[in-house]
Amino acid sequence: MARVYNFSAGPSMLPEEVLKKAAAEMLDYQGSGQSVMEMSHRSKIYDSIIKGAEQLLRELYNIPDNYKVLFLQGGASTQFAAIPLNFMNKSGKADFVITGQWAKKAYQEAQKYGECKAVASSADKTFSYIPKLDKNEFTKDADYFYICMNNTIYGTVYHEIPDTGDVPLIADISSCFLSEPLDISKFAMVYGGAQKNVAPAGLTICIIREDMLGNARDITPTMLNYQIMADNDSLYNTPPCYTIYICKLVLEWLKENGGLEAMKETNLKKAKILYDFLDNSKMFKGTVVAEDRSLMNVPFVTDSEELNAKFIKEATEAGFVNLKGHRTVGGMRASIYNAMPVEGVEKLVKFMAEFEKANS
Ligand SMILES: *Cc1c(COP(=O)(O)O)cnc(C)c1O
């Protein structure tokens, strides 16, 4: 069996240990005589899986007791509507920082429900940096302030959490979920699609401070009402059972491997290998300003479309797959999430060096 190094932005690599464990438990989960795929989500045995996943997530992220953890469906994109429906309920206003396509989509969707202000944007330079924030631009009575923490497509990240004072801060952390420690208490809500760093597609995790709940608009669809989901421990209807199970295995893997401090150290190491190479290469260049570089998504280019295409083709043949950049940026992008081993990045860089030598 030959496994490739998968640099996809999502769905993306899962730890091999997790896949092996899932395979071993596929037909008979812990003596139950069933696969997790076949279980009732109301059974006692399944309850231990979903509760176990929540407990592990709370432990790893050090989530304060006054936050709810919700396991939902619909992807991060569904929350673009759920967030205004649940929270845009006092002044009917919200602030957004436009750092890329995902932030923009959230901003556009929220406009259907209230008054939205883009307080800053990095659209002028293809989102290659995180804009400086001017507090004078912030809406004093906004119901919330919204950011996309790690910008999957453009490869930028907030290295500092914006200070929004009393205005609740909400962050999409889809593509940096569990990649390093995060002070959850600084946010009113963080959320993300699980398919980047935590599980297969189908699961969206929302972590919400309790005082935010209970004020959803009357028109809010039941399935998008966070209060109802919280009151039902994410079991209002059938949750994505198997995906939550894989999520639990990933969380166990994280804990066994030293938790988020250790993960951060490994992620810093991987990113440094790749960025150091890009900074020294004459052929390949990173596209993001140095101070805002993501540890998870690394876009890069050569100065020729032809060379980009040749590189992607040859890399794929050599077992480094999904390196094609997003269509709005072009070039290449290497997503190096938690499950990408250091060795995968070392080998990629070696391959890039050889390619550079052979083509210059
Ligand atoms: C992938 C991604 C999304 C979209 O997620 P879906 O689960 O496909 O809706 C939203 N935000 C960010 C930051 C992403 O990386």
How would you describe what is shown here?
- It is built from nine helices and 14 strands.
- The protein is α/β, with parallel strands linked by helices and 360 residues long.
- It has two domains: 240 residues, 3-Layer(aba) Sandwich (Aspartate Aminotransferase, domain 2); 101 residues, Aspartate Aminotransferase, domain 1.
- The strands form four sheets. The protein has a seven-stranded mixed sheet.
- Helix 1 packs across helix 6 and helix 7 runs parallel beside helix 9.
- The chain binds pyridoxal-5'-phosphate.
- The site of pyridoxal-5'-phosphate (PLP) has 12 residues, from helix 3.
Keywords:
alpha/beta, Aspartate Aminotransferase, domain 2, binds pyridoxal-5'-phosphate, 360 residues, Aspartate Aminotransferase, domain 1, 14 strands, three-stranded antiparallel β-sheet, globular, 9 helices
Q: Bound small molecules, which ones? A: pyridoxal-5'-phosphate
What's the overall average pLDDT, rounded?
97
Instruction: Give the class from helix and strand content and strand pairing.
Output: alpha/beta
Gross CATH architecture of the largest domain: 3-Layer(aba) Sandwich
The low-confidence parts are none
Number of strands: 14
Largest β sheet strand count, sense and barrel closure: 7 strands, mixed
Query: Based on CA inertia axes, which overall geometry fits?
Result: globular
The ordered H/E elements are: EHHEHEHEEEEEEEHHHEEHEEH
Helix content: 25-40%
The spatial strand order of the largest sheet comes to 2-10-9-8-5-3-4
In CATH terms, what is the fold-level topology of the largest domain?
Aspartate Aminotransferase, domain 2
Radius of gyration: 21 Å
CATH superfamily of the largest domain: Type I PLP-dependent aspartate aminotransferase-like (Major domain)
CATH level 1 class label of the largest domain:
Alpha Beta
The number of helical segments is 9
- List the domain count as a whole number: 2
Estimate what percentage of residues fall within beta strands: 15-25%
Distance between the termini: 35 Å
